[in-house]
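Appendix B. Raw example, untouched.
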Amino acid sequence: MAIILNIETATTNCSVSIAKDGRMIALKEHNNASYSHSEDLHQFIKETLEEAAISITDLDAIAVSKGPGSYTGLRIGVSAAKGLCFALDIPLIGISTLESMVSQLKLQEGVVIPALDARRMEVYSAVFNSNHEQIRETGVEEVQPNIYDKFTQQGQVYVIGNGALKCREILDHPNFIFDDSVVPSAREMCSLSFREFGLNNFENNAYFEPDYLKDFIVQRGKT
């Protein structure tokens, strides 16, 4: 049996779940635009452990959303996960934020483009087929009118995540379906982290870093 704590802080949703053999047994999350992760995360971990009626020492691994996403949000989640793994001497699992988003959809055909806002007219994105297999690498790109023509020519294209808002402003084709309500959640991480646990796909706790993709930019007020 594998008991895994899953942590998702890549966007505005601070989310924590606990799963046994890939089946979720506890979940605590709050989607807050003010990014209150530093205040909420450890309390959510405590509450999910209590809900699951297990001790933190019962955990077999900790999984964390590794990005892309908010620089600060990722740092908070990864720092907490690494600290717990070090203290408990258990493995660390990194889960793609975009893959966990795609896991929320069930499709018969078409492709899915999870898109997260990367400021200006850019998004963090990748492309997955209807079987949730990634068919284009993850990257940061500027949204332009013809950027996904290759996929719209083949069928329906689902653009999901908060980046779908800016995509809707630029992309104009009847095969596009936009859904900005999809947010990364520790709920979908349960099956993904159990898969990685079974494959022994663990991160090096000392050197693991999130997939930031872009450098952190300090926003300074006017003087």
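End of appendix B.
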